[in-house]
Every structure is written in structure tokens, then in C-alpha cells.
Amino acid sequence: MFHRVKLLSALLLFCLLMSGCNGARETDAVAYVLAVGVDAAADNQLNVTYLIAIPRALGSGGESGGGEKVVEKVTVKAPSLVEAQTLLNASVGRAPNLSHVKIWVVGEKLARQGLANLIGPLTRFREFRGSMYLVVARGTAKEFIDMNNPELELLPSRWAEGVLGISSESGYYLSSQLHDFYVRLKEPGGAPCTVLAGINPDTGKDKPSAAPTLPDRAPGYLPGDIAREGGNPAALAGTAIFKGDKMIGMLTNVETRMLAILMGNFPKGFLTLADPRVPEQNVYLLMRLGSAPKIEVSLIDDVPEINIEVLIECELSSISSGTNYEADELRPEIEQQVSKAISQEMKNMLVKTQELEADVVNFGKYLRPKVKNYDEFSAIDWNRLYPQAQIHIKVDAKLRRTGLMYKTMPIRE
Length: 413
Description:
This protein is of the alpha/beta class. The chain is built from twelve helices and 14 strands. It is globular and about 85 Å long.
């Protein structure tokens, strides 16, 4: 009994000695970094921009209450991320802590040069989390961080976390996390991709990157080109496409929506179509995926064949012409119009990715169950075969609901 008491006392003493904050620092000795931007600089160096929280200002309500800045922005030029963090420590007088980083922004020039030297430290260093959002900015990452000034949020990092969290509301951009990007880099099939960001000039001028694909009325946009005035200059739209670790192209917001549908990551979104009977008028619908897309991939004489079946469910939001498309005999006209628009836009997006030799949908994963092991799949060299793939698309649209009106009545003269 006595030995048991001694053992229990020793264990309790051990627990007390092992607990506590042995390597902890006080809050006023730590610089909490919320976002990081990385740009290519001359002489093979990096410009690293840090967005640092000011705890004192946050406690007093920040600019909305106490009138103080809530964040500090510091840009350091260094040959590596590690050296930049060390130089940051010398300039801010506090120990930088990057465990609270929400978003990494990479400038377009650096993304096109390659991210191999950037992804390594991000995935290995213990303060970085795989759930951090990875974004490619048109222009420079520094400009995006400097100009990002949300009015509805106290912190720009909270804005980024919020807007990336609701990407499924429209399908015009897809949130991309560090872990997902890293996995795509290492896979023998499929191409990495990230969300695109940009700064809107707020001139209200329309600069579409692609004309509408009729009968869809919506043109394609890249971030920074949307006709808009006021609000936060920072915007997200479209997708950055990579081949290996190098960025090679971009998808517009409309093309990104097609990518979201094929990836089964499209809960809902609005669609503006030309009226089947009155082409100068529009029909507005809310659409969603009726089920996960059915994708079948096979190899025939070393040529991939991809068969795609997509079910889209729609709800009428508005009919400008006043045509009673709620009627059973007219519903098929709307359904055919939706099917035509989605099929054509999906085809255009896939042709573009084939030209870029980048399988961003990751069709290769549907071929894996048909091979014996990983080595056999790697030997197929899917990325080489994808541009030659024969793709067949079938979109079945169903008008399930008519909103709060069951019948459209004409306006009396």
C-alpha cells in the first residue's frame, strides 16, 4: 500500500512538472501575423508582406471605435521565407507568430515562375496549417493586401476567411487550401488550381474577359475586371490553373462555375438565359446540382474517353416576357435552354483545359479503380493523354419549382 502511495505521488509530481507554459510568451511580446503575401523580386529574392494584428487596437474596437489602426503592414525583401521572418523580428521588435495566418497570397509573376520553393516551407514548418487559404493575385500580392479594405469586417483576414468560406454560394470561385494544392502537386493525374484575386479599379467600366455563350447572357470575368463602383476594391473570381508548380492560365468566373459543377461542389447559383420564345427578353433561374455528376473514364487504344452526365435542377425566379413557362407543355423549352447553355459552357471550359494540358477537374481519379496499383497508373502518364481525350457531355435539366408563382399572367393593356 505504501509503495502505491509513493508511486501515485511521483506521478502527480511528474504531471505538475510537465504542465505549464514552459516556452510561452506574453501577448505584448508576440506579433500575430494574419496574412502573408509573397512576390518575386530582383536577384532571385522575395518581397514578403505581412499583415500583423494590433491587439491593443482590437481590444478598443479598432477604427470603428477607438480610432486606431487594427493591423500593421510590413514588407521585407529577403532571399527566403525563413530569412524574411527573421528580418521581420528585427524590425517589429516582437517574435512573429504565424500560427494564426488565414491566407497566403502569391503574386502572379511568382506563380508563373513556380511555387516549388514556397510550398516546401509552408507544408513543413509547424506554425503553418494545411487549412490556410492559398490565393493567386493578378498583379502583386503586396498591392492586394494593401488595397484590401473591407467595410463590414474589422480585419482584412476575417474578410478573406468569410468570402472564401461562402464560395459555394455562386460557384464563381472555389476556395483552395494549402493541403489540397499540395496533394494535387504530388498526384500523378490532375492539375493544381487556386482561387484568383484582384483589385477592382471601381470605375464602373465593363471589361469582360469572354463574351457570353448564348443562350447564357452572362459574360466571363476575371477579378479586377467586373463593372463595379464602391465597396472593397479587393475581389475574388475565377481560377488559376497550374501545370506542376507553375501557373499557366486562368479560368473566368463562368468557366469556374462549370468546374465546380463537374467537381460536385456547386450547391446553387443564379442563371440568366435568353427567353426561348422572345430572345430579346431574359429568363432568370436558380439552379443547383440534382445529384453528383456521373463521370466514366476509360482507355480505348491508348486514347481516353470521358463520358459525363450532369443533372441540373432549376427554379424560376423571373420571366421578363410574361410567357407562362410554368405550364407543363412549356416547361421543356426552359429545360432545353438550360441544358444547351450548360453543355456549351462546360465544353468550352474543358477544351481550354485540354489546350493547357491541365486536368483541373481531376478526371484521372476515375481511371484509377481500373488499374491494379499506383505504379501502373503512374505509367499511364495521364497528363500526357488528357489533351487527346474524347469528351462526351450530357446535361439533363429539370424545372422543379416555379418560385412563389404557379402561373404567369399577362399584364393588361
